[in-house]
Amino acid sequence: MTMSKAEGLILLDTHVWIWLLNGNDQLISKTCLSVINQSVQSSNIRVSAISIWELGMLESKGRIHIPTNCLDWVNKALEAPGILLAPMSPKIAIESSRLPGKFHGDPADRLIVSTARILDATLMTRDKEIISYGAQKYVKILKV
After folding, report:
1. Nearest to 99 by CA among 87, 86, 112
2. Domain-embedded: residue 22
3. Does some domain include residue 40?
4. What span, in angstroms and rounded, lies between the C-alpha atoms of 138 and 108?
5. With CB atoms counted within 10 Å of each terminal CB, which end of the chain scores lower, N or C?
6. How far is CA 138 from CA 10, 61, 113, 129, in A?
């Protein structure tokens, strides 16, 4: 999906959220940064609750480095302008277990995709498997 301007809700995949809040903007395309900047103004950016768990797991395994205590980082990140937490509802949880088509079994990815589907949000990601799923028209994708 190609987007030149913000249209509706944007859901950040976990890695995009981390890059954005850690100042790794160079890993995000100029088009995506433009969409993010436009979406911030209307508070149309969401982060799935499962991304907090995923961040904690990545940090505890040493796969990413956070310059502060993990919980402090999350709390500060959730105070960033225009970014709101998308809680995991029963509808999102059930949707994640019944995604149409073929999608891999990673629970975090399934919950992120189902969150985007239920919220009718565009999922901003670099994850190749999620992008392939989006190409099947099951979820709106904006490639980072």
Report:
1. 112
2. yes
3. yes
4. 17
5. N
6. 16, 32, 9, 12
- The CATH number linked to 57 is 3.40.50.1010
Q: Which phi and psi (to 5°) does residue 8 adopt?
A: 75, -160
Structural domain containing residue 98: 10-143
- Give the span between the Cα atoms of 52 and 24, in whole angstroms: 18
* Mean pLDDT, the chain, whole residue set: 93
% the chain with pLDDT above 70:
95
In tens, the pLDDT along 24-72 reads 989 999 999 999 999 999 999 999 999 999 999 999 999 999 989 999 9
Residue at 4 is within a domain = no
Which tokens belong to 14? 């976990």
